[in-house]
Amino acid sequence: MSLELSSLLDASLAIAQNSYAPYSGFKVGAALLLSSGAIVTGTNVENVSYGLTICAERAALVRAVAECGPGLRIRAVAVANLNNAASPPCGACRQMLAEFAEPDAEIVFFADDQVRSMRFAELLPLAFNTNMKA
Ligand SMILES: [Zn+2]
Fold first, then answer.
1. What sign results for the dihedral spanned by CA atoms 8, 67, 121, 80?
2. Number of C-beta neighbours around residue 77 at 10 A
């Protein structure tokens, strides 16, 4: 793994400390590397109405759009958790990331006690897309 991806993974692990997960105890952090070189992090935020919970990846994404504008592109994503669990992005996050991730963006996460790395197009083939952007 490159130093750049290793640093991104470290950033995701660090931000996981800020997770708000009083119901599941599953503390997740995500870090996005944008084409500008900026790194934007996010963490999961749970809610007593469980369905309102937002994942770390989507939290990072909405923060990135707010901070960097709608034209951002994602070059890499790292996801880590403090629970030693496999943590590839969930289906909802994959679809949200599809809007901004380059097809060859590297997605790095833990699975089976190892760091896995995949291209975004491998992680979400055939993402839903209407091609209706104005
Ligand atoms: Zn998710």
1. positive
2. 28
Q: Rounded to the nearest whole angstrom, what is the distance from the C-alpha of residue 36 to the centroid of ligand 1? A: 24
Going from the Cα of 74 to the center of ligand 1, the distance in angstroms, rounded, reads 16
Reference 60, options 88, 41, 82; nearest CA is 41
Dihedral over alpha carbons 39, 59, 134, 76 (to 10 degrees): 40
Q: What is the pLDDT of residue 79?
A: 98
Q: How many CB atoms lie within 10 A of CB 53?
A: 17
CA 72 to chain centre: 14
Q: What is the pLDDT of residues 63-87, one digit of tens each?
A: 999 999 999 999 999 999 999 999 8
